[in-house]
Amino acid sequence: MTDTASESRDAPVLAPVLEISGLTKTFDDKVVLDGVSLTVARGQTVCLLGPSGSGKSTLLRCVNWLEKPDQGTVLLCGERIGMRPGGVVPMGNAELAKLRMRMGTVFQHFNLWPHLTVLQNIIEAPVHVQKRRREEVIAEAEALLENVGLADKRDAFPSRLSGGQKQRVGIARALAMKPELLLFDEPTSALDPELVGEVVAVMKSLSQAGSTMLVVTHEMGFARETADKVVLMDGGRVVEEGGPEEFFGNPRTERARQFLQRYVSA
Amino acid sequence: MTLNAFLSLLNGAGVTISVSLAGIALGVPFGLALALLRWQRVPLLAPLATVYVSLLRSTPAVTLCLLIFFALPVIGIEIDALSAAVATLALNTAAFNCEIWRSGLMNFSRDQIEAARTFGMSGPLTFRRIIFPQLWRTCLPSLVNEMTLLIKSSTAIAVIGVAEITRAAIRIGAQTYDPLPPMLVATGIYIVLVLVFVGLQRFTERVYGHAGGAA
Amino acid sequence: MIRDFSLIWQSADRLLDGLINTVLLSLVGAVLALALGALLAIPLMASNPVLRLVSRGFVDLMRCVPFLMLTYLVYYGLPRLGLRFDNWTAGLVAIVVYNTAYMAEIIRGIWSRLERETIEAAVAFGFHGWRLVSRIILPQIVLAAGPMIGNQLIQIIKDTAFLTIIAVPELTHAANSIQAQYFIPFATFITAVLLYWALCMLVEVGVYAVERIAEKRR
Questions:
Q1: If interface means Cβ-Cβ distance under 8 Å, which residues of chain B face chain C?
Q2: ipTM score for this prediction
Q3: Which residues does chain C have within 8 Å of residue A93's beta carbon, measured at their own beta carbons?
Q4: CATH number for the domain including C96?
Q5: For residue B106, what are the domain limits?
Q6: Which of A38, A100, C8, C26 could form a disulfide with C126 if both were Cys (CB 3.0 to 4.6 A apart)?
Q7: Domain presence at residue B68
């Protein structure tokens, strides 16, 4: 990706793929999100950084409404998620599902369906949720498996795969939805260090191919080299956001400097 | 339903309870003996115990009860209904108790047994002083759970005429031509009995750790 | 003794009839109880407290009542409500009602232990409602439930013996009538016990086969 964040933002009046504004979420008196706003433009890769407990994962879960925020709005390509137009009546499961199937989620613990083979995991939602033709989906799934380097694992069950392989299947499964937005929830945090590289490589190539991605991660190298925009969260708030050069090279806030000192030891 | 009928149901409850307790008193140690045979892999006896457990676990209590009551006299062992009832419940529950004791033994810490050996303790002494005092605590919740199941299967002894709760209810129903009231009362008595054991199981679980299933 | 067993051999057709009835009652009863139990598991897992309380009440009640007692209640009680069954059907109804509770509890137990994450992933991918249950939740339950459903089936096979008391012509009933006719209790009941054993072994072989399939998928 050669675009920078500011260029994308200057692009014509197309609504951003994701627009979060004023999101608040409280768990039993504990404020997890405290008025978070964030946009992801088409083709952008946005990395969400921050210490654990800073609300990153909750934010991601609010985007596909796995968690209901207390206040604030989430717009996917200009369409409000979770609430019917007017913002008073909550959406039913079927309406939510229609929006959810336009996003692809990659989970920290992979969350593959253990009773299905690798290929079946990938085609499950496109065939049974999106109701696309099975043959067509299988052909695409096979191509996706080829791309993530797992064509030979087509008929294996998830329990037979390594963590890195599972996560690459997880990514292929998300891509098979032809999503407008890819959500990554700490995709490498559950992996052994030597397996992180294979997953990061797949994510980089996706980013370069122009996918729109919102990535919660602790992989500073990935953020620095791939992100169009880096967002630092702490205590449920966005404390700094900017291009990776600026963020890693010359952070504006004291909090960002502290964070970088602790997490980028190199 | 008259007071007399109610009293004879209570009497039936007394029979159910005493026969069940007798079955438990015999079946729990017998189960332990079977488990020890299998755990120690005693030649000849261990495989016999395995077959016994497998056979008894798939034999209905009713069928076992009929077998004991009608067949033992044929091979020269006279047995009255009450003894046959106790024997049925004991032999049946022993098979299940064996599995509970055995899983407790299999999960027992090897290290402790080795430690006992290095202090020169003999096998039986190790069992008596080291293993058993811990074993019964871990097995108790599951054993109590099995007792609950035994109460429920004790209705089988009605088939040879033992006047326990079910039998008493049937008799009253036949006398009054109104079987439903005594049956509902009998059901209530069973519920109380089972709840007592479930309570006991919860208590032992809280004190000594967790059991496999519930009633 | 050999004479005894040859007498049994002569009555083999009656034992076989009994065996067939035992198998039929167990299988039909188990299948119906499993289907109804799966449906009952839904209110057991519901977030609505009234649904949960009512279904939980039924399940706990059945777990407190001896099977024979329920059989009597069905046999003597239902006719008063105007439902009149023959002995065989009354036995089957008792098996189904009783085991629906046990099957539901088995399914609920597995359901509540299912990894929440795999369900959440399905929701994130747009699954909801019946499709979520049938495509993601049920298959995982079925794969995990093999051994427990097998145990319950063995329990059902054994419970059918109680039905001799309401004169259902199942295996124990057949054995009892043969022994009463020829006065050969030992040989007949031993034969019956061995047949029960064989049935339960068959169930265990079946469970083992299902486990082979399930092992890879968890």
A1: 54-55, 57-64, 66-67, 70-71, 74-75, 151-156, 158-159, 166, 169-170, 173, 179-180, 183-184, 186-187, 190-191, 194-195, 198, 214-215
A2: 0.86
A3: 128-129
A4: 1.10.3720.10
A5: 3-208
A6: A100
A7: yes
